[in-house]
Sequence to fold (245 residues):
Amino acid sequence: METMQEQEQITAMPRIGDKAPEFKAITTQGEINFPIDYKGEWVILFSHPADFTPVCTSEFMTFAHLEDKFNKANCKLVGLSIDGLYSHIAWLRTIKEKIKFNGMKNVEVKFPLIEDITMEVAKKYGMIQPGESKTQAVRAVFFIDSKGTIRAIIYYPLSLGRNFDEIYRALIAMQTSDEFSVATPADWNPGDDVIVSPAGSCGVAEERMNSKDELKCEDWFFCTKPLDKDEVLDKILKKTKLLAE
Ligand code: BEZ
Fold:
């Protein structure tokens, strides 16, 4: 029987806008001090239920295949499961040596995979959701920005493999909002119109409705403007290049 304190620890859920909980951990790429080691970069910290399971294997191969694309957007990947280091090493070796999925093979996972046999990190990040499993982490995805703030969280159940195009889309959309002070509408992708901040006065609302420039207003509270795809990608990807230099 868990004590109240243990129960609270397991069910603690960091929220959007919180600073990413700190931890030190052993990974398949050596020790990390999180999030300090990633200062100035975005990080996607994600959990999976267990090594040597099929959905997780398909996800790791897909994420490893896309790692370079995420890195170019100034974003590092860090995985976690409630398994030990040797299990992680053996699983990643098996993936590289034996597994084919969706046209991918010989896939090497180069990003760190945290061993969290004590569940210390999983508990801090609300990755154990006892209704789903008391011993395995759910499929959590934490988007942490370059200042160490949690910007978005997605949770999936054990049986559902994640959509990595959506994870990349969300990352680029949040970076675009930061860089261009805009919001992004449903299903937005670079090149699509963006949403300008809401009118803050009756005067601005009136001006918006009569605007003859590039602004398109469905109504005073819903105005969009074009934002060139190359401008978005140049800014985000060039920034990464400059940071790396
Ligand atoms: C899987 O990755 O295949 C899996 C892991 C835990 C529960 C169900 C499926």
Q: What stands out?
A: The radius of gyration is 20 Å. The domain at 174-244 is CATH 3.30.1020.10 (Antioxidant, Horf6; Chain A, domain 2).
